[in-house]
Design goal:
By secondary structure, the protein is mostly beta strands. The chain is about 0% helix and about 40% strand. It has a nine-stranded mixed beta sheet with strand order 3-2-15-12-11-17-16-14-13, with no helix packed on it. Strands 1-6-7-9-10 form a five-stranded mixed beta sheet, with no helix packed on it. The chain is globular, with a radius of gyration of 16 Å. The chain starts with a strand and ends with a strand.
Amino acid sequence: MAIPTRAAAAVSAAALSVVAVLFLAGCTAGPGSSAPSSTPVPSDSAGTGADDRDDMEAAILDDGRMFAVVTWGSSTCVPQVDTVLANGQTVSVELVDTDADAACTADMAPRASVGALPEGVDPTQEVTLQVTYADASDEIDVDGDPAFTGTPGSTTEYMPSAAWFDDGSLVLLTWGSSGCPPVVEELTAEGATGTATFVTDDDKACTMDMAPRATIIAFGDDQVEDDDFTLTLVGGGLDGTVQVRG
């Protein structure tokens, strides 16, 4: 059955926000979703070549309930998950631009578009995402995780989650105001542990919703050990630890 993501409370255009962070440069940039305009986004921060910019990556989040598709393009014009159709473990995903007339920045950054896995998909087994976005399409195999205890279609527990989508690069999913997405102030990492410190602004006016916010964090691929990696979150109302899957 096709699932219009606009109709799902867990996923909406306003809910998707993203900040891409380059560990070596200490800059911030993004569910994959629109980055805050006050946060500069490094162009091609991961060093992706022109031939690779049409490639898409993906990760499973929220203990198996949600997924993120990572694409490359303007950090301020992030595609939205529009419809999702499941056939067994194969999930067809259509991404669309939220506003065809929007003025987009001319940078090239990773963006994460977040959607809900349809009921019946088993996140403990491999999931194949067949993604279309404008004239581009890609088929992405995402490893399942036997440790997932969430069921697609069930209510989220609103806990942060994270998963690798490439060497040294992960998607962090947090929940909170869509008008106040997390902004990374500092990143540190060594071996299988890392810390992301977020900007805390108690005076900022935030929308009173509870939405998924996707933050792309890119460490150097030789800076961290992907296996059993623990990410500590500090500030921004996100204090805690997250075990990065994948």
